[in-house]
């Protein structure tokens, strides 16, 4: 995992008050302020989906631009699906909920196509 991604993941975890980064876990200097308001459940869910997507996008590059693009995009699309599911769980705006449903449908189809393409192209 690249240093930039590690730092991003640490910043996300710290912003959502991850117990893994709290004083109790032995990481001095990365304390969670118990007096600060806890982030909303949707914020935690979005941060988790974002961190997972970035972790999954950290692929071993093959030198084949087509394969590398498709492998990275599968993880990227899955991240969009995961975030759309958070919207459907917590969101209220009907237009945005409809957008989330469309994202899920379209990107699931694209993931299927990309996986089939990879299977036929040594990915």
From TrEMBL:
Gene3D superfamilies: 1.20.1260.10. The lineage of its organism: Bacteria, Pseudomonadati, Pseudomonadota, Alphaproteobacteria, Hyphomicrobiales. Residues 21-42 are annotated as: Disordered. Residues 29-118 form the DUF305 domain. Keywords: Signal. Residues 1-22 form the signal peptide. InterPro entries: DUF305_CopM-like (IPR005183), Ferritin-like (IPR012347). It comes from the Bacteria. This is DUF305 domain-containing protein.
